[in-house]
Amino acid sequence: MADYAMTIDGVAVPGTSSFDVLDPATNDVLGQAPECSREQLDEAMSAAANAFPVWSVDATGRGRALEAAADLLDAAVDELAPLLTGEQGKPLADARTELRGGAARLRYASTLRLEPEVLQDDEQAYAELVRRPYGTVAAIAPWNAPVIIAMAKVGPALAAGNTVVLKPSPYTPLTTLRVGELLQEVLPAGVLSVISGSSGELGQAMIEHRVPRMVDFTGSVRTGKAVAAAAAPDLKRVTLELGGNDPAIVLDDADPGEIAEQLFWGAFANCGQVCVAIKRLYVPRASYDGFVDALASVASAVKVGPGLEEGVTMGPLNNVPQLRHVEQLVDDALRHGAVAASGGGRMQGPGNFFAPTVLAGVADGTAIVDDEQFGPALPVIPYDSLDEALARANATHFGLGGSVWAKDVERASDVAGRLACGTAWVNSHRVLASHLPFTGHKWSGYGGNSGIEGFHEFTEGQVVWRKR
Question: Looking at 35, 87, 98, 241, which residue is catalytic?
């Protein structure tokens, strides 16, 4: 079993103890991750604070270092992908895609610069808005896409001149720990530390620590509220991405045969463990049966299995609590009259496998419609009028993403503009890119770390005014 180390002040550091990381395809121990002590957390934070004065003043140097970091991560894809599949569960091809996406996030960040904005330039005065880094950012990443989400935090935070202390999820720390070690080849000591822990206590300690001025968190609504509360006494700035219950609305001119596969993978990619996956599908009653049948047909062709096996297109759920959550939601829907057009329960054998499940006959008010399932189960819900569908789609605490599907693109675009969410797609879903701002409405969070807007989240403004 390989040894995994934290990176603190540019040095590989073992933990004071270790904890098991499981392979979700078997629930056997894949490896052991180091447990970070309070003293080691202090060391990581002190190293970050000490590295900040030099790192923050050389934008050109930061750009070169981030570009080199992207090159290193790209070069390590084949080495790291099996490890990412082993701890997260996703098919190997998807692990490679995620790692390349992480490198792309670093590469995009390498191009970012903090340009001043001229506010006044006349005979009385010259004034400009300049953006300054906060100092040290405490970044906490989730288990569903651990590397790309971590790099989406690290890239713009470092590009803005901050230093970062990063903590991956205890379910998926191993690949991120390896990435942290790898990037020390091109980053100055202390600029990026990667630490790990088996419980929420380490994250709480990071947030409450005196050094960070900003916290960037991705995870559940419940934990996000706790993060905001823990950051409040020190008035730390916070960005939160807290998941979603994304609706997709199919309009009456859409053809099931043409879009069923896109809809399916918009919901079931990464075994449904995507914050902006389609979680609820609203379909006109006249074409309802056709869409249910088409989606079930796609589901029947999916090869579910361990991510390292040839031809597998869907892996297991990442962890047992998430498997139980999905199972409870599906069982509840079936008890309330839903019909499983495909799937409907766990698959036989070891591991956290759940059959891709398309549910018909589900109504709003059912838990799987109202809550975020974050797994391979999709409720398909009929509607009679478009206004009704929009009202039901927007009747949620969540507001991360949503989509509208139709042959008439202009009409679909108008409808998409009426969705209460941070990103509204037309004839697609789950399209994310480094240059596109990504943020949530309502309980899906606030702030973000993509695009120029996300870059600016890692800065605070300062007006510089000069009298003529």
Answer: 241
